[in-house]
Amino acid sequence: MTESLKVLTLEPYYGGSHKAFLEGWMQFSRHEWTLLSLPPWKWKWRMRHSAITLADQTAEKIKAGEKWDIVFCSDMLNLAEYMGLVPPSIQTLPSVAYFHENQLTYPVAHPQEFDFHYALTNLITALAATEVWFNSSYHKDIFLDELQGFLKRMPDYQPFESIEDIRRKSLVKYPGIHQFQKRGERSPGPMRIVWAARWEHDKNPELFFESLRILKTRKIEFRISVIGEQFRQVPDVFNSARQEFSDYIDLWGYQQARSDYETALSEADVFVSTADHEFFGFSVLEGVAAGAFPLVPEKLAYPETLELEGGNEDFYFKGGADQLAKRLVQLSEKIGSNNLWDSDPGRAIRIVEKFFWKTKAPLLDQDLIKIFKKKERT
Questions:
Q1: How far is CA 236 from the centre of its chain?
Q2: How many structural domains comprise the chain?
Q3: Do the Cβ atoms of 369 and 96 come closer than 8 Å?
Q4: pTM value?
């Protein structure tokens, strides 16, 4: 008989990569999931109040007779606060805190806006969890490395010993991505570029548009699809770029339907990232899974997830807009000669197939079972 657990899943910010992660895992999982979630709105308030709100929701489920084997939450929850507000039957369960991001090393547009409270919430959640999972080695390393300097800012009672406590139970557990259908023949036309990311400053859209400006000056033919999640405040560069490159645009803005998003990726020749911050890179890896050629900065989580050391140097660019534009020109020439992949169109897909949910979900399922069994023995 296949082992199955009842998983209580707590997600204060059910949107973006958080939602994609849970939906993908639950679709392919053998476990039974109870998802308690809140809409992706006002993340700061979510981090402050979600422990109270989700504890109340948990209590209602318990009254209805539900019980679970393990608790799984994201970094947006203050797990210690939550555990202090729920009945003992929940407090004794093993728990996993999954770090999609962290508020200690997350870049802010204005440094004076940095709020210590949110970084402390991440620290406290990591201390309260049975295990702490990070979505990349890069993410785990920079978080643990930065904790030392962060705690030194405290006026006294600096809990430096907590760093090693967290380190001992920290693991890298990559999320999964969806598998795409194999591409057909490429439609004729100029190089098609997709840029798909949150429309925020840490994705460095200015670098992308500056590189396009260079291509335009050099009279290189191209088409662009600029898509991704948007919030109330959008960097001004998007409005100006939409006018400047109006004759080059295929798609612009958030694609409401998943099918439209997947079509955009499947029709792109090149997927460009200009991020200054990326802990995993869902959209990049999905672009690769859809058959697009990745062109990403040689930093962040990309050398890890796209296997730089495996002989894939051509997926990366260094430097600024000039270097990005230079690489795009080279790829445009390869597309023109029908040899973008040097006769091996499946090369990048073979790199990312280990992330496909059909492979990833059974491994994560088994990881939860190991935690549950370990807790039973203690």
A1: 24
A2: 2
A3: no
A4: 0.94
